[in-house]
Write a structure and sequence with these properties.
alpha+beta; 5 strands; flat
Length: 211
């Protein structure tokens, strides 16, 4: 019976967690949309109250509106006029005290991570950490630059070492390229390997000899 219970748990757990995460995301977006409706209700005439109240009780409407807003924003920013408005928007935020520090930091990180020309989190690697002879999975985030590169020299790589089972926290390291091993596995496979604490190992490529 214990074996059957464990097998049933393993069968249902991925689906249950996936549904739970999706429901949490829908609830979060609906809550944000509900806050927007509350502000809108305070600015509109009383006659619009029943309509706003009906919108508040439509489940999943926040997700649809956020998806639509992102789609329209992407289409707008893809042309010349949209990019000009985006530059003005960024210029406005970069002139607001305190706010500009947070905005600039987040913008630089997002531009680096999601740029189609960047190398951040597009390659999985094996490195020795926290000491020689102990290996772990890392992700290349780029190469050292600026003053750091002048002190350390060339031919180094910047890597992010995620913690297990929560990969959103980790360590930033700069290592000689000769001390890292580039892996052929995808980033998704490497993340799965880390999150599962090594229990879900990616299949070795056919062209690599088994050690």
């Amino acid at each position: 019976m214990k074996k059957y219970l464990l097998t049933g748990l393993l069968a249902w757990l991925p689906l249950t967690l996936t549904i739970w995460v999706l429901l949490w995301l829908v609830g979060l977006l609906d809550a944000i949309f509900g806050g927007f409706l509350t502000g809108l209700d305070a600015l509109t005439p009383d006659s619009a109250g029943p309509i706003i109240e009906r919108l508040r009780h439509i489940p999943g409407l926040g997700v649809v509106l956020v998806f639509t807003a992102l789609l329209l924003t992407g289409a707008l920013v893809s042309n010349v006029a949209g990019r000009w408005w985006l530059r003005q928007w960024s210029r406005l935020f970069t002139n607001i005290p305190v706010f500009k520090s947070i905005y600039n930091s987040v913008k630089k990180v997002s531009d680096t991570l999601f740029s189609s020309n960047g190398n951040a989190f597009r390659r999985a690697m094996l490195i020795q950490y926290p000491r020689a002879g102990v290996w772990t999975i890392a992700f290349q985030t780029g190469t050292p630059g600026g003053e750091v590169a002048k002190h350390l020299g060339e031919d180094l790589v910047s890597v992010y070492v995620p913690t297990t089972p929560n990969p959103t926290s980790g360590f930033f390291l700069m290592l000689p390229r000769a001390e890292v091993i580039e892996l052929q596995m995808s980033v998704d496979e490497a993340l799965t390997y880390v999150i599962s604490m090594g229990s879900v190992a990616p299949t070795a490529p056919m062209n690599l000899p088994r050690k």
